[in-house]
Design brief:
The complex is a heterodimer of chains A (804) and B (207). Chain A is an alpha+beta fold and 804 residues long. Chain A is 26% helix and 26% strand. Among the domains of chain A are: 149 residues, Aldehyde Oxidoreductase, domain 4 (2-Layer Sandwich); 91 residues, 2-Layer Sandwich (Aldehyde Oxidoreductase, domain 4); 311 residues, Aldehyde Oxidoreductase, domain 4 (2-Layer Sandwich). In chain A, strand 7 and strand 8 form a beta hairpin. In chain A, helix 8 packs parallel to helix 17. Chain A is globular and about 90 Å long. Chain B is α+β, with helices and mostly antiparallel strands and 207 residues long. The chains are: A alpha+beta (804), B alpha+beta (207). Bound molecules: FE2/S2 (inorganic) cluster (2 copies).
Chain lengths: 804, 207
Amino acid sequence: MAEGWPKKRRLLGTKIRRIDGPDKSTGRAKYSYDINRPGMLHGAILRCPHAHAKITRLDTSAAKKVPGFQALAMVLPPKDWLVVKADEARKTLELKSVPSKKKTDKAEQRTVTVGPGVTILRGNKPVTLADLKADDLVQVEVEQDAVGRELFYAGDEILAVAADTEEHAQDALRAIQIEYQVLEHVVDPAEVLAKPGLHTTPLPNLSPGKEFTKGDPAAGFKAAEAVVEATYGVGVISHQCLETHGLVAEWDAEGGLTVWASTQATVATAAALAGRFGVPPGKVKCITHYMGGGFGSKFGPDVQGVLAADLARRTGQAVKIMLDRHEEVIAAGNRPSAYGKVKIGGKKDGTITAYAIDCYGTPGYTGGNTVNLNFLPYVYQDAIENFTRLHTVAFTNAGAARAMRAPGHPQNCILTEFAIDDLAAKLGIDPVIIRRKNLPPNNPKANKIDWAGRRNDIYNEQIDIALKLSGWKDKWHPPGQGKAGVIKHGIGMALHTWGGNAAGGTTPNECFVVIAKDGSVIAESSTQDLGTAQRTVTAIVVAEVLGLQPTDIIVKIGESTFGFSTGSGGSTTCPTQAPAALLAAQQARNDLFKKVAAKLGADPKNFAIDVGKVVDTKTQREWSWKEFCAKLGMDEAKGKGEWNLAISNEPGNENISSGQVGGVQTAEVLVDTETGLIRLQHIVAVQDCGLVVNKLACESQVAGGVIMGINYALFEENILDKTTGRQVNPDMEFYKLGGLKDMPKITVHMQDMPERGVIGIGEPPTISTAAAIGNAVFNALGVRVPILPLTPKRVLDALAKGGQ
Amino acid sequence: MNNSPGDRHDGVSRRGFLTGTGAVAAAAAGLQAELKQATAQPRVDDTNPMGPAPVLLQLTVNGRSLTTHVEPRVTLLDALRNYLDVTGCKRVCDRATCGACTVMVNGRTVYACTMLALEARGCDIRTAEALVRGGKLDPVPTAFVDCDAQQCGFCTPGFVVSLRAALDRNPRATPEELEAAVSGNICRCGTYEQMRHAIVQLCQKGG
Ligand code: FES
Ligand code: FES
């Protein structure tokens, strides 16, 4: 059984500045985008301008004459071929495909005439025909292979070029001659539903879901005192990471690859590149010391990363490809839309008697699993006795979705919480009554410390806190019945839930702590800091155990070679890495005690750590930390910590890390009924969070989640033109993100529960904000604005319709 | 000079700058005059044009004189980042919307993605990197660190430069004025609440 968190906490749970804050705020921190290697080339990607097309002609000869041009790489991965015969005189190469294990693969033979446009690679190095002999294993790329390739959205990658400068790389792209056969496309998911036979995406556009029913919805609706039927929805949004996706790739003389990648997963990115280029995983190193936002969209090298590494091996130079803003928005992931026809029935005491939803959403041309609407009705489904849901995926010719901060949850929250407020209005009751009445019950069999054993109590307490902090009692009024005037005031609420456990998987995350004889301490892990202050989390935990200050700890993270770690997704990083650091520090401390005790002839059990010193509790002798460590002599003290979900579930470990959280948010708004403009006044975010490691960073995570929710509610949407199939706002000008002056006062309340151990909270606070804002607007107007974002036009349209 | 986002480029609004060629010419003319005063450069006119081949560029960046060659089409931002390895200013939108590339040119905030490098010849350029000297952190980044007004930090140098310039112009600026000073900057991680705390600290303790 692990020793666990210290009983007396000196640093944990207090407000501690980020240790890398000064470097970040003065621009000295080097992000992947900032890496300039000696002789580095710049890559740029050719993308399809059509929403659906086939390449009919490709001529890159002019591009190769552009000053500064260095190399070209196609997106389609090269195959492995065995050389049967290399005829230098005739410039031909007879090849046989390498048989794979798949039975469906047929052996292929081909003859290639070697000349411009043909690249031969052996062991990741370009070779000439003269170098080849029979039985050589090579990769051969013939440029014209791209002809006939089908492209599925405006932005689909075709090839990349590398040149000495960014300007020249762009010139080379412009010089490429390419022609397309334009094919039928569809970008509107409603159109997919209307035309069931469509097939403009890799899979048929329509992917019908399976209906799921609990109880007897028909009977539930019959028993209801009021029933509401409505349609709600929210559009597709982009991650809009400020640091775009991309990396710098550089091969060394020994065939090793180093990449500086903007990624949420150093280890997985290195592994993916190793697999793609057929090199041992140990020879690929991924470095991510700082990264400028990912939000779920950066888990691997992606097409651009593979292209950069490919161009680097062809040229023997480092190559940088970072997407530009346009590419970032169209090609680097998005959050799928969700639209649903909802029917809800209930009673005056707040009971929801039945809920039914038929919904759909689009993930773009692929990535159907990212449209996760399969936990409707949200939060309340354990209490609602009768419900039915049907969810359809509509593939469209747009960039593919990726996980985005709490994937699926914000949409599920909107489709549930909007219906609750509409039902409350019809019943003539405060919607808080419905929320309280349908909270998931405590599980009497579960441990009282755990979420399952106390979730009802946690939510009720959170609602109490939110009501108080928002002034709900004085501010709530029946929908549309606030003070008279052009500007209407409203207040709304929504609830959310999330996991936040330690990372799953069989291999635990690792952290290493080394104490040197000069008293310096290094904590090392391959995990990455996305902006969550993970570097500081590690420093705090190690410093707490060793009686030091966080700034005393040298934290080395963000290199795939520093042991194993999982990607930063699902809010798992802190609940995995904080325990790993705890265990590593405790083991290093024990090792220190043992080694010094042997030198002093003391009993290691008598040593204890105090702030900045070590005490022998028996002799009362004490040493400063440095004095004590100096006694290591030529030695050093070491510790290794390992953590994952399986370890956290071992008996005795449950209060080191755990999972499942709830949260309640309220929004207060003013709506101008003449212009349709919404002005946010105040957001309250009550968040359950287990043991807080750093209150300062934890609060800013929650406020940041709320702000992302505000953008989702009011401003953001990928707008695609139906005729051309292109996005009309792939930028930051017409794709709106709020600035400081758009933001209301945000009150964050952390519901500290140290007995539950560390829980990740990066995702949950962004879930319910948009639903709460939508409900506040409904409370202000007495009319539902059903589709997000709540643009002035949509507000005015709803008012016009509601007034009829 | 008003420091609202629309008014960064020599009194020319962003929209005006992008759409009105007359306005661009006016702005460019103003800068040309400034450049002439700042440093003697080879004469450039119809018979003696610059480019398209790379031309000599000398910039004073954070007090250091740096020299490189760039094509005339290269922006100040790209010259700093790609040619001079000054990477505190970030490229995010590259279209004068987000403020991540904000630098000071002769004390005025400029979106470096929207100014040609050659327009800045001989000018005194300051980036976020200048806000730490001999290990001493300037009050603006200090406030950002104290209040945790940064998460991923990619937007932060831009915000910090905008605020530094606003406080240089008016050390007694009010919180409202400082909020206006960063209204041309965007943060995706959502650090605005903490930034408000940082702004209050700057107004109370002085910046
Ligand atoms: S990069 Fe210059 S304003 Fe965005
Ligand atoms: S801190 Fe990440 S964008 Fe502002």
